[in-house]
Write a structure and sequence with these properties.
Blueprint (H helix, E strand, L loop, with lengths): L2 E7 L2 E6 L2 E5 L6 E2 L2 E3 L14 E3 L10 H5 L6 E5 L2 H4 L10 E5 L4 E4 L2 E7 L17 E6 L3 E4 L9 H5 L4 E5 L14 H11 L3 E5 L4 E3 L8 H4 L1 H12 L4 E2 L7 E4 L4
Parallel strand pairs: 3-6, 6-7, 7-8, 12-13, 13-14, 14-16
Antiparallel strand pairs: 1-2, 1-17, 2-3, 4-5, 5-15, 9-10, 10-11, 11-12
Helix pairs in contact: 4-6
């Protein structure tokens, strides 16, 4: 049975595997503070429904309460440990089945097994304050093994923690022209890909949102990370099929176990 992956923009992907629907870092907003959605339409209502939603960390473009409130009642939601304390609005989403997780945890949802892995990123809700919640990545294991990296830098134990995977969903940019520590740009993502050695990869977290008034300021910083990742991956990991999806586009992976 093929596994289908759709990129809806930023870090939001839809995954269909083993009859289970998964959403990563759901963000269904046209505007987020000083950011505007500049490319890609929002997912249709039917594609905002999932059996499982994964939240990688507490930044507002990854844990977005209005988007989580659109999920269907009964949706299983995995969040970093401490998230309901750091983001009290989570406690008001009583229709969702919220589970707090940390690296090393394993959760079963339907036919899927979800492994929680580390990420190298400042996952606090605000840029100041205590580190109470870890940033996370997830490996979704069903017909395929799909790694969603969330937001992360490149770290030495990444490949060991993630293990063998079929698909890697890797961030390659951001929402501004500069990336700080704890992020993958196209070059570092290509190096991560060489270490992970999946069958296929999808670049995410670029070219969707950026600040008001910056349309004419170094626009290539927003648009080109996906193409740059394709180019650099061909050099660093030529055996991996890289799918640079447009917003709302999908690809299917045939899996024979």
């Amino acid at each position: 049975m093929p596994v289908e992956i759709t990129w809806w923009g930023h870090a939001t992907c839809g995954l269909r595997d083993s009859g289970t629907r998964v959403l990563t870092d759901p963000l269904f907003a046209r505007r987020l503070a000083h950011l505007r959605r500049r490319r890609g339409g929002l997912p249709p209502a039917g594609d905002r429904r999932a059996d499982l939603a994964l939240v990688s960390h507490l930044h507002a473009d990854h844990l977005h309460l209005p988007s989580l409130a659109e999920l269907a009642p009964g949706t299983r939601l995995l969040v970093p440990r401490g998230a309901p304390r750091a983001v009290p609005g989570l406690r008001r989403l009583r229709d969702l089945r919220v589970t707090e997780v940390v690296p090393g945890d394993t959760v079963r949802v339907g036919e899927l097994r979800v492994r929680v892995v580390s990420a190298l990123h400042d996952g606090r809700r605000l840029p100041v304050g205590p580190h109470r919640s870890p940033a996370l990545g997830y490996v979704v294991e069903g017909e395929a093994r799909t790694y969603f990296a969330g937001d992360t830098g490149l770290f030495d134990t990444m490949a060991d923690e993630v293990g063998p995977v079929d698909v890697a969903l890797l961030p390659v940019g951001g929402w501004g022209p500069y990336l700080g520590e704890g992020h993958l740009d196209a070059g570092r993502a290509a190096r991560a890909l060489a270490r992970l050695a999946p069958r296929a990869a999808v670049p995410v977290h670029y070219g969707t949102y950026w600040p008001i008034g910056m349309d004419a300021v170094r626009p290539h910083e927003f648009h080109t990370p996906g193409d740059e990742f394709v180019r650099l991956s061909a050099e660093a990991a030529p055996e991996v099929a890289v799918h640079r999806l447009g917003h709302g586009e999908s690809f299917r992976l045939e899996v024979a176990r």
